[in-house]
């Protein structure tokens, strides 16, 4: 019976009718887990299947219109009146639904259903509506949680940028009335050598050694700043201390090479290490 109809649809070469039969319980592939849903299926070529589907939709629409008309007409009607209504109501509906098929974007060339055709019988039960609302609320909650997670990630990225540039980016998400956090710029490792610091030895080899000493001294100072930076995790702090110790060791090696070369050339050794190198407590990793 039409009142038991759940859906009419076609897929490629398949036409199916879904009806609700409380006497039968079957496993349905539809959402909401409805019981008592029986599916009747027929197969033919695509054009025939599509034509059958259009005619079935038209028949169902006619049933709905007749049902509505009966509710409005209290008295019994003659066969002539019914035949007149069939002529006036049936024919326009068929052409209307055929044109609707081309207009409705939900109905594809090889895919259509009763619900996508815009039929008046596409309403779902109250129980199905409640289940659908619960499902949508659950999806909404998941999306909100994901949004909060992405906002936190954006905040961390903006904070990292502010630490490097010293300025909070405008993309930092702020709540109503919230002030942007104060961020201290990280200690940089960039440095510039003063031309006056470079030695002017006549011996090119000694001059290269002296230049290497000054450059390594700057590298050691930069490593020291990085190692003394606060709020570092244990692994990073340990690594930076080791890099600082390696820089100190290399500076001492350059100093030794300079003194060996100066003694070889008959010159006095320098005392640069006493000024450049840190104490023993700073040298340990």
UniProtKB/TrEMBL annotation:
Name of the protein described by the UniProt record:
FRM4B protein
Q: Which residues form a coiled coil?
A: 126-153, 237-264
Alphabetically sorted, this entry's keywords are: Coiled coil, Cytoplasm
Recorded source organism is: Piaya cayana
Main localization, broad class: cytoplasm
Gene Ontology CC terms: adherens junction; bicellular tight junction; cytoplasm
PANTHER family linked: FERM DOMAIN-CONTAINING PROTEIN 4, FERM DOMAIN-CONTAINING PROTEIN 4B
Subcellular location per the Swiss-Prot or TrEMBL entry? Cytoplasm
InterPro entries for the chain: CUPID, FERM_domain, FERM_PH-like_C, FRMD4A/B, PH-like_dom_sf
Q: GO:BP terms for this protein? A: establishment of epithelial cell polarity
Point out the gene that encodes the protein: Frmd4b_0
Q: Where is the signal peptide?
A: none
Give residue ranges for domain FERM: 1-67
């Amino acid at each position: 019976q039409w009142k038991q109809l759940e859906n009419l649809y076609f897929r490629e070469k398949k036409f199916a009718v879904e009806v609700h039969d409380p006497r039968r319980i079957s496993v349905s592939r539809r959402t909401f887990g409805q019981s008592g849903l029986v599916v009747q299926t027929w197969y033919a070529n695509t054009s025939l299947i599509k034509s059958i589907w259009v005619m079935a939709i038209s028949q169902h629409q006619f049933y709905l219109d007749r049902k509505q008309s009966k509710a409005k007409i209290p008295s019994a009607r003659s066969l002539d009146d019914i035949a007149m209504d069939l002529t006036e109501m049936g024919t326009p509906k068929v052409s209307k639904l055929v044109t609707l098929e081309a207009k409705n974007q939900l109905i594809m060339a090889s895919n259509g259903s009763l619900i996508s055709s815009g039929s008046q019988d596409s309403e779902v039960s109250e129980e199905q509506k409640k289940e659908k609302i619960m499902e949508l609320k659950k999806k909404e909650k998941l999306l909100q949680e994901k949004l909060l997670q992405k906002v936190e990630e954006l905040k961390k990225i903006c904070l990292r940028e502010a630490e490097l540039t010293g300025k909070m980016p405008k993309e930092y998400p702020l709540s109503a009335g919230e002030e942007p956090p104060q961020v201290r710029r990280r200690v940089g490792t960039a440095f510039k050598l003063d031309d006056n610091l470079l030695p002017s030895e006549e011996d090119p080899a000694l001059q290269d050694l002296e230049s290497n000493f000054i450059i390594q001294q700057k590298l050691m100072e930069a490593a020291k700043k990085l190692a003394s930076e606060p709020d570092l995790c244990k692994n990073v702090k340990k690594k930076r201390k080791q890099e600082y110790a390696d820089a100190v060791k290399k500076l001492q090696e350059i100093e030794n090479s300079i003194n060996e070369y100066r003694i070889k050339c008959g010159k006095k050794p320098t005392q640069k290490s006493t000024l450049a190198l840190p104490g023993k407590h700073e040298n340990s990793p």
